[in-house]
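Reviewers of the previous submission asked for a worked example of the structure-prediction workflow described in the proposal, so we include one complete record here. The input consisted solely of the amino acid sequence. No template or homolog information was supplied to the procedure at any stage.
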Amino acid sequence: MLAIAGGKGGCGKTTTTLGLAWTLARRGRDPLVVDGDCDMPDSHHIAGIERGAGVDALARGAPLGRACQYPSALPGVALVTAGRPERTAPALRAARNWSGPVLVDCPAGVGPDATRPLRHADATLVISTDQPQCLDDTRRTATAARQLDAPPVGALVRAARPVTAPDRVADCPVLAAVPSVETPLAAPALAEAWSTVAGRLLDGETAPGRGRDWRRQHRSR
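From that input alone, the workflow returned the following structure tokens.
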């Protein structure tokens, strides 16, 4: 289970989560996205679907196949939309039964709601802009991820000029730098960056070396 986390809202967590999942789907994986951002849920808007029961239904015991939706804009991606904060933990426990990689869109910051998904994840991909305040917030997020046993495997940075993005953020490698665009899911530069990140994660270049592995392969259900 891979947490997509960042210290500041608007840094690109949700877009990265969906874009990376879409990339994994095109590579033959069977990705599941869980929207764990209960305060500012946005995945359903970007994916073009209704919010639905999602996390709440999964936490109540609904089968995974019924709790998730399959956005036509993201072929091959299953999405569990956000629910109540107190239901995120049981929903994430249930999501461990998914046969493919599970990506969790986390709330911003390091408060209780933001760290709840990190307690269930195996690893974290941190997202930041190149602004100093956002970079500082991201360092705190990375520290929390390490303390909660979901160590960062890398960072993705949204930069005004990607060629000048830092090589490391929060003591972890920057896997890709991307520009700010109005339609991220249709932007070739972002698609290339997500492909780079997916390749490095799946190849194990940035794997945290733990017993659990977020990269579980597809199995027939």
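The first strand starts at residue 2 and ends at 5. We consider this example representative of the routine output the project will generate in years two and three.
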